[in-house]
Amino acid sequence: MSKTKLIAAALVCVLVVGILAIAGFTNLVNSDIKSKVYASEASHRVHTVARDNLTISPSAYDNSEGGRRLIPVDNHTFVAFYYDGSNILYKVSVNKGQTWGVPQSANTGIAGSDFARWTVAATPLHGETHIVLLYSNAVSNNTMTELHAKEGVFSPISRSIKWEDKPSTLGTVSNPSSCVGNIGGGACTAAVASTDTRGNIFAAFRWSANGTGFQYAIFESTDGGISWTTSMNATWAVAPGTRGEMSLARLSLGSMLFVYAPFDANELYYSVYHAGYWSPMNMTTGSGLHFGTVKQISSISDNRHFIYVFYVKDGNSGDLMVAKWNNMGVFKGVETVDSNLSHSLPAASLGPDGVIHVFTLANDKVYEITNTGSNWTSPLIPFGTNFRNPDELTSAEAIPAAIWREDVNPLNDLFAIRFGY
Fold first, then answer.
1. pLDDT surpassing 90 at residue 16
2. Strand pairing partners for 88?
3. Strand 282-283 to strand 297-301: parallel, antiparallel, or no bridges (unpaired)?
4. Residues near 273 by Cβ (< 8 Å), separated by ≥ 6?
5. For 254-288, what is each residue's pLDDT tens digit?
6. What single DSSP character describes residue 19?
7. Residue 33: enclosing H or E segment and its boundaries?
8. d(CA 45, CA 420)
9. Quick check: pTM over 0.90?
10. DSSP state, 379?
11. How far apart are alpha carbons 195 and 300 in whole angstroms?
């Protein structure tokens, strides 16, 4: 093989990822590790996971709901997920993301999602970490789409996930012709997920219903993703004619908040789940969202179970805003997080110390803003300044982490997913 071909082959084998303060899964806190990480040079926090024609999220120009792609199993072990056009793959790191194992397939098949709109959730159960993928597949010659939840248990011995043989099918919907041409075909589906305070998993799917408008439904699992029940039946979205974006986040006492951001609306709409029932849709006030634009949102629940929904004010770029709810689901208003940069793809994470981190793309860099009490910091560049056209961005579950994609070789369309901490 020629030297040129060897170099090209080597370039097709890596993928990058980036995370910030590392402390463990949900209630595992290690301040020594966190302090040491923050004291290191920013460039030392960025490591390569893989490199190829891969995706992790919608692009900076598209709708986005901030789906997470990294699951911490313990203080040292992380699982990163990405999509290669044929399957959802994952890699495992046992040294805080410094090096990553070989790619392993979740055997999902070609996801019929609406441009990388699948997600991952995790919950501890009986001393094990249960990981669930939420995605969809086009079936019946691309005339129908099945909404899937695939459950697995992480094995620290094999450093892999033991997946169930077949995914749970949460629903089946018809594929409208307007969606069939999208990546993977299907019904323009999207998925978001979150656990409640009791470890139950809630998952929301959105799809185009026969080309006449968009619907969504919410499902719940109380056994780590093995079995599912319907929590909210299929419901027509507000302003259903075009795609809207969703968010799920935990409130106190097993309650949940569902947020929907319609394309043709200038406010957020939300429903509160309590004691087995979802409230009628309510509307925020003063959000400043632009009517008739794509929406990019990302939510996080803090240690008090107050919820923060970050969004870009002007479609796919603009001021970074946040809408807030208290732990009972009462809307508390909107504030500007930053108006100095034109932000895209907000992706929120929560640190073990209770600090909220929100990552965005701006000026071809990955920025971070944190909340220190009642104030938001100015945008920082925690991962250095050596970026190559970052165009996708997501965050992590239970730790402050940013995962983004860069175009490392534009001539050959090779991308790297970077993971910095």
1. no
2. 83
3. unpaired
4. 202, 218, 231, 232, 251, 255, 256, 257, 258, 279
5. 999 999 999 999 999 999 999 999 999 999 999 99
6. B
7. helix 31-39
8. 5
9. no
10. P
11. 11
